[in-house]
Specification:
The protein has 4 helices and 6 strands. The chain is of the alpha+beta class and about 140 residues long. Strands 1, 2, 3, 4, 5 and 6 form a 6-stranded mixed sheet that branches.
């Protein structure tokens, strides 16, 4: 099957996870609806076409996620800056919640390189300051399609 996309796609995921917390409580505290959540010790759903052998797999932690769809773009800052703007208004609430519940904040930057068009993936000051304020990790997942 041929990919009809002409250029590279970038997706951003802000994920807060840890051993024992209630994602709904975090949603209430910060007033931002997640795009996904799951609870520790609940069953990991099967993706279409997969067959499970043996016992069901369980999540090892609870998670709260805010994610974009893939966006056809070569410039990371054009995609991540509007999301940082949403979360920047809640930094103190998020940071305090993370500290109180011993959680981790991770920023995933997922890139699908298409037709050899490589994106500009600089970690500009706004992103670095944001990650620092939340004691967040940044992970780049890069796939050549």
């Amino acid at each position: 099957m041929q990919n009809t996309c002409k250029t590279t796609n970038i997706k951003i995921e802000f994920t807060i996870f840890g051993d024992n917390f209630n994602p709904n409580e975090l949603t209430t505290q910060i007033g931002i609806l997640p795009t996904g959540t799951y609870l520790k010790d609940t069953e990991i759903p099967l993706y279409e076409g997969l067959i499970r052998k043996g016992q069901p797999k369980l999540y090892k932690e609870s998670s709260w996620e805010y994610s974009t769809e893939y966006v056809e773009n070569l410039f990371l800052d054009e995609i991540i800056d509007p999301i940082i703007d949403i979360f920047s208004k809640k930094i103190n609430l998020i940071y305090n919640y993370i500290q109180k519940n011993d959680l981790t904040f991770k920023i995933f930057i997922v890139v699908e390189i298409i037709n050899k068009k490589t994106p500009a993936l600089g970690a500009h000051k706004k992103l670095i300051d944001f990650a620092h304020a939340l004691d967040a990790e940044i992970e780049f997942d890069i796939y050549v399609v």
